[in-house]
Amino acid sequence: xxxxxxxxxxxxxxxxxxxxxxxxxxxxxxxxxxxxxxxxxxxxxxxxxxxxxxxxxxxxxxxxxxxxxxxxxxxxxxxxxxxxxxxxxxxxxxxxxxxxxxxxxxxxxxxxxxxxxxxxxxxxxxxxxxxxxxxxxxxxxxxxxxxxxxxxxxxxxxxxxxxxxxxxxxxxxxxxxxxxxxxxxxxxxxxxxxxxxxxxxxxxxxxxxxxxxxxxxxxxxxxxxxxxxxxxxxxxxxxxxxxxxxxxxxxxxxxxxxxxxxxxxxxxxxxxxxxxxxxxxxxxxxxxxxxxxxxxxxxxxxxxxxxxxxxxxxx
Length: 315
Ligand code: CP
Ligand code: NVA
Known about the structure:
- The protein is α/β, with parallel strands linked by helices.
- Helix content is 43%, strand content 13%.
- The strands form two sheets. Strands 7-6-5-8-9 form a five-stranded parallel beta sheet. A four-stranded parallel beta sheet has the order 2-1-3-4, sandwiched between helices.
- α5 links the parallel β3 and β4 (128-130).
- Bound molecules: phosphoric acid mono(formamide)ester and norvaline.
- Residues 132, 167-169, 232-233, 236-237, 272 line the site of norvaline.
- Residues 59-62, 132, 140, 272-273 line the site of phosphoric acid mono(formamide)ester.
């Protein structure tokens, strides 16, 4: 097995489009490095290197945490706001990616289709980071498992139950959890299951780490005994037209006090945010003593600092 240091230096110049782009060792090492940054035990200087940010969906946490992370690493961010750059006017990805590769040292992209970030990665000669697509949200998953690790110390053997839509956040939690040896249960109504290929991939990764990834259709069964309960919006960005039909389909799936009572008494509550109180999560659980949602949001900064330091060759 590689040392933590060498498995991270291997990430220099690489893309992060999916949690499955990382090995188990690299995922663990990134979480350790993130904790080191958070505790002030590690400093890295990227010497003014630049990250281009292309954000085609709304964002608060991702936009700000990437900007602050680059600042703390001695780098800078160029925000390619689609409203004022040619990105929003339809300049081809092949051209944008090759031009930006001459100016900046990495790109973080939030968009709709996973194929679009793959296209950027194909044409760019610099690392491309998935800052959320319809399929995955890998930076979020790193922050989420950092938060779980803070709560329990050792991740292997824990159970994280995600209740709600089998969406981008669920997919990254499944893959990243599998790599870390965390059992991941996805509880969702029929018709809102996670992507079948991601389920299969995460189940095979989990098997090699002695963990289980499963999908259940009953909320109490999904959360029983779990150490972490996680939820996300029922209608993701791009699904605004389905908001009402989804509210009907997800009736009974609110992460509330009754559901929390079925979990491990030490269980923590996570949500990637933004949240809709009274829909996917009750106000009481969101603000209750089990909630770690604001630590989790803060951990986006530390996790991305570790990721940027590794991909930009700062280690
Ligand atoms: N969780 C998350 O990605 O938040 P933003 O949409 O605000 O970036
Ligand atoms: N699933 C949500 C996550 C937001 C951070 C969305 O894609 O809108």
